[in-house]
Amino acid sequence: MLDPEYADCRYSNHNQHTMVNTSEFVNGDKRKLRVVIVGAGICGLACGASLREYADVTILESAAALAEIGAAVHLAPNAHRIIKAFGGELIQTGAMPCKSFQEWSAKDNKLVINSSFDPLVDAGCEWALCHRVDLQKELMRVATTPDGPGSPCTVLLNSWVVSCDPDNASVTTKGGQTYHGDVLIGADGLKSVVRGQVVGDSFRSRPSGHSAYRALVPAEKIDNHPDLASLGLLDNRITMVNGAERRIICYPTRNRQLLNFVCALPDSELNEISEEKWSAKGDPQALVKSYASFDPIWQELLRQTGECGLWQLRDQDPLDKWIKGRTIIIGDAAHSMLPHQGQGASQAIEDAEAVGACLRGVAVSNVPTALKRVFDLRYKRATYIQQISRSSGLGSMRKEYLAKLGQAVNEDAPLNPIQYRDFTWNYYGALEWEKSHPEWIV
Ligand SMILES: Cc1cc2nc3c(=O)[nH]c(=O)nc-3n(C[C@H](O)[C@H](O)[C@H](O)COP(=O)(O)OP(=O)(O)OC[C@H]3O[C@@H](n4cnc5c(N)ncnc54)[C@H](O)[C@@H]3O)c2cc1C
Q1: Which end of the chain is more exposed for a tag (fewer CB within 10 A), N or C?
Q2: Atom of ligand 1 nearest to the CA of 264
Q3: Do 285 and 217 fall into the same domain?
Q4: 160-196: per-residue pLDDT in tens?
Q5: Which residues approach ligand 1 with their CB closer than 6 A?
């Protein structure tokens, strides 16, 4: 554990993986960069993994334990290949490779899309259907294992940051402890404390008018059901049942032990009140009632839900800055997005990689320039995907945002899926993006 005051630089001899020439003696700064990250979520841990080779990293997390609520997250090749490059092994730790997509129309219960693919062949990396707990554990392992490059990150739980000084890269916790770094990274999610100090009060988020139920159902309940077993829901597949104003999306995870659901619908169709809290519980009976217009087979599927969460989906306009002094916000703190494209965590992971790439070998005096580079490389892409996530929303939300993007409203094809897939999946890190997509750099 680090001394909380963390004011003195540490000259410790790191293990044999430390790459002395990239970081320890840079431009006369005879020490590694000291980085303080607020938040040990997906973004904060990935950022620690990205930096550990050449920086001393301390991650402060408000929670007493890293116990993500039960739910799954899918990582497309753009994010999964970054985790692999960090040494993470998601498939070996239970994530399932997605190899097909089915879309059913709720109106007439017809299969409208049934496509098969292999991203490992097409994009060189699997599309990983992960349990969030497994993903977070694996990121924690990669960030803190003594066997990794450089020095393990120090993760301090029960460390709730209440204020920060962006120009001096320092934070203070509720317990009154202050941590100083050369760089401060706000990876503290939607309700970021760091963001307030970086952008002032310009951040606004508002209810999008939609909410999402989330649930995990044990595989036996599907396998042993006379009608549900034959649907193939536990195959390596994402299944969507689309009812224009509401949707069911489900896929298997944790070595096919669980089926994950996300059911998004307008608040006006809820039979209960949603809250802006990931841990808020929903009522499984109210969930089924909200899907009464769907074919009985899908209602029967929802009836398998034992316990579910109900989450109010919030909408955020893009921020125009992520940086102040020696501080940058990344992940949901900078660009939280609606979940309709499943790219929130992936964009957070891309940010984390960009921070690592831009701070490599940088002297303390050049930190603000390096952070500006992160912003320049990441801003247009993350903002575009944030906007696309809005425009692939439901019902009138989709129309409103497509209109803002100047795109035609076409109920059947709001986006060209192939172009969008290529845009998101064909990402090979921030520096390669800078070379191959100069028009996407600020
Ligand atoms: C229904 C739903 C489905 C989704 N599905 C997908 C999907 O399939 N694919 C995908 O890519 N994304 C998905 N997302 C989005 C994704 O979950 C988020 O974008 C992602 O979790 C953001 O990661 P983060 O680390 O930036 O923020 P968070 O996950 O919110 O982590 C922030 C961390 O900071 C800590 N923290 C907060 N404040 C403080 C403080 N003051 N001091 C110290 N610590 C603090 C928190 O405890 C937390 O650990 C989904 C989201 C929802 C709601």
Answers
A1: N
A2: 1
A3: yes
A4: 999 999 999 999 999 999 999 999 999 999 899 999 9
A5: 38-44, 60-63, 73-74, 160-161, 187-190, 193, 212, 214, 262, 311, 331-332, 339, 342-346, 348
